[in-house]
Every structure is written in C-alpha cells, then in structure tokens.
Amino acid sequence: MRSVLVVGAGNFGAATALHLAKEGGCRVTLVDSEVLPNPRSASHDVNKIVRDDYPDKLYMRMLHKAMPQWRNHSLYKQWYHEVGMLRADNTDFGENSIAAYKSFGIRNESRMLPVSEVRQRWNGAFATTNLDGLSHVLYNPNVGYAEADKALNDVIKAAFDAGAEFLLGRVDKVIFGPGNRCIGIRLDDGEVHMADQILLCTGARTGAILARSAPENRDMHVGDRVTATGAVSFWAKLHGAQRDRFANVPVMKNCLPQVKGESMSMLSNGTIKFNCDLCFTNYVTDPATGEKMSVVPSEPVLQVWTRSKFIKFFEGRARKTLDGLYGKEVENVHVEAYRMCWDASTPTHDFLISPHPHSENLYVATGGSFHGWKFLPVIGEYIAAMMDGTLSQEYAERWAWDKTSGDGHSANPTYQVIGDLQEWIATEDLSVIELYEPEEPVSVGDLGMGTKTPAGSV
C-alpha cells in the first residue's frame, strides 16, 4: 500500500487527506505544526464567503459541484448560511456573472438592484454605505458565507474517522534521494519521515520550504510562480437594537477603490467579520539562499488574531473599510481584534496544483490567492487526480508549475499587492500587541485523534 504525506492541514491539505482516506488504497498522514486546526493557517478563520458567481468558467464548473454540498451534505451544511451577497463593483462583473449562470444552465436569482433599493432594504443596514458612482449593485440571493474554522475542523475530523493519521511537527525541509527523487520530510526537531508521495499544501510557506530544501538548486524553487502575501481581517461585536438590524444581512463585497473590503454578515453571537480587500508582501533576506523572498513573518502577532491594538497603518485602513461598508451605522462600533491572514498568491490568481517537474514523487497544491477556501468540499478530488495523473488537461494546464501561456486573466482580480509589510512595521513596537485568546479553544481530543507516527519513520 502506498504511503502519502500531506503537509499542511488547511483546506487544500485537509480536503485531500479526506478524499484519499475515503477512497482507500493508501496510507495517509496529515502533517501540521500545530494542534488542529492551525490558527496560523489561512483556512482557519471566523468565516469565509461562499459564492459561485465566477465569470471564469473553469472555477464556476468546480463550484457547480461544490454548492450542492455546502447546502445539503451533512459535513458542510450546518456551517453554511445562505444569506445572499451584495457586490458593489464599477466593472462589468455583475453582467458577466449573470451571463455565466445562464450559459451553464444554473438556476440563480442574481439581479442588479438600484442603489436606492439597497439603501432601503435590510433594516437600513446599508443606508449610508459608500456606493459613490454606482447606479446598481449586484445582488445574489443564492450564496452566503460559512463558519470557516468549524467547517475545516469537521473535514479534518472526517479524514481521521476515515483512517488518516496525524503527525504533529514543523516541516523544516523535504529530503531527496538519488536522481533528486523526493523521499520524505525532515521536521525541525531532526526527525525524518518517509513516504511514497509527498504533497505540499503549505500555502504561503511553500517558497521558504523549497528554498531550504535545495538552496543551490534553483529548479526546485518556486521563483515568481508563488508569492507569500498577507491581508488584514478584523472583527467587531454588535449589541442590542443594532445587532437585531444586522441579523441575516447579506455578505457585502465593496470593490470601489475608496472602500475595497468585505463584510461577512453576522454570526449568531453578534460577531461581524471584515476583510480589507487588498494584500501585501513581506520581503526579507532568505537565510538559505541569501536572496530576497516574501515570507510569512515569524512574529506570532503578525500571523494570528490579536487584541484591538494593532499596527497604525492597518488600523487606519480597517477603519476606512468598515466606514465605507456601513457608513454612519458603525461610527461607534469598536474593532475587537485584527489578523494578518497569509496566503500564497500566483500572478494570475490561479491555483498551483502540480507535480513538481524536477523531483519525482513531490507534489504541490498551493496558490489559493485569497479565493481558494470556498472550494473545500471538492478541491481534494482535483488534487488527488493531479497526483494520480488523471487531472483533466484544462485544469492541469491552468494550474501547471510552468504555464505554457498567459492570457492576462485574473481568477481573483480584487486582491492586488499595495506594498510591503516592512514599510509599515519599521517604527512599530510589536511587543505591545497582545494575542487574542479564543473563548473556546479546540484541542486534539475534540477532533477525536491522537498524534501518530507513520510507517517509514526513522
């Protein structure tokens, strides 16, 4: 029986571990540096948008398979909330999205609402939203959001229930045998674990891992194929009459340059989460190669949820987004916590799901580019097909290590790099930023698993 090490338990890794374990025929070990779900993972979050309105038909086809699972499958449906979504966008996204639904024959009730109607509906939650320059806003009542950490938690638990094992440890590097063939991983405590196939679902950390693994072999490095990028999320709590007004409001994505942010509707406990719809790099000198590389910062306060005090630039940017999304309605709302969410971005915002062309038995599934999470119910099937060599040509070419062509498209055009983190933290005292401690931490016991060591360990 073949053995598979899946490194990284975010949505790509967890979904693949579940798919492989359910299929059988292999021994699957899910490797992560933290008790799961990992709070540093881009997939571990309060909530995420779940939508299928992609003008890009390749991704829309995938979501046509995923949405019924979000709505009906026991693993996902309790965490999915179909509250609808508004999109304020001065491009032709809305018209293209509606046309894509029609071309696929997908039943959908999307329509363009006059701004005046948006302001009047939903208890006036959007009465003073910044919609300057727009006459209409796209309203899609057939999408919504999912409670991300809980959904990811259940997928991981289902993978273990199906027979996958868990290995707790931080991966230092992948290791190679004769002919540059990948044979396993080494943890930072020196332990080596062997397997027939090694899949890196390591997100924004992929570039650094491959650089450490083969510092002199540039063929192994990601180069400009994938860049570690961060984005800022934040959340607040609503109370009393204001909380009542926001019950079941749609998700709002405001793409206007003066706002550029998203509101994820409101959870039952009054929590409402937001994203600043932009990203940034973090270029430092990589110790393995001596070259500049964008990497995930080592400081915990730049990876996980923190208390309300944060970096001044991002506090200001968050406030601008919050005020643009809801206007006067939130002028007295206090931001409770911030988080830098790190993901791997590709030049076209397509995923990078490919065998590594320069190392047999090494596979990469990364490049979520801030839009990969919603594919949680189906992405494991595609990654497993890639590993088996059965992924369809259309997807294999779009997600290839080396693309044969670039048509200038962007699969997720709203997240663009605005600068480098080092510019904004140079004068900050990070030591005064406090980590946010969740009220109900998840333990290994909650997942019904133990830390296991796979066969082939040395």
From TrEMBL:
<comment type="similarity">
    <text>Belongs to the MSOX/MTOX family.</text>
</comment>
<dbReference type="InterPro" id="IPR045170">
    <property type="entry name" value="MTOX"/>
</dbReference>
<keyword id="KW-0285">Flavoprotein</keyword>
<dbReference type="InterPro" id="IPR036188">
    <property type="entry name" value="FAD/NAD-bd_sf"/>
</dbReference>
<keyword id="KW-0560">Oxidoreductase</keyword>
<dbReference type="InterPro" id="IPR006076">
    <property type="entry name" value="FAD-dep_OxRdtase"/>
</dbReference>
<feature type="domain" description="FAD dependent oxidoreductase">
    <location>
        <begin position="4"/>
        <end position="386"/>
    </location>
</feature>
<dbReference type="Pfam" id="PF01266">
    <property type="entry name" value="DAO"/>
</dbReference>
<dbReference type="GO" id="GO:0008115">
    <property type="term" value="F:sarcosine oxidase activity"/>
</dbReference>
<keyword id="KW-0274">FAD</keyword>
<dbReference type="GO" id="GO:0051698">
    <property type="term" value="F:saccharopine oxidase activity"/>
</dbReference>
<dbReference type="GO" id="GO:0050660">
    <property type="term" value="F:flavin adenine dinucleotide binding"/>
</dbReference>
<protein>
    <recommendedName>
        <fullName>FAD dependent oxidoreductase domain-containing protein</fullName>
    </recommendedName>
</protein>
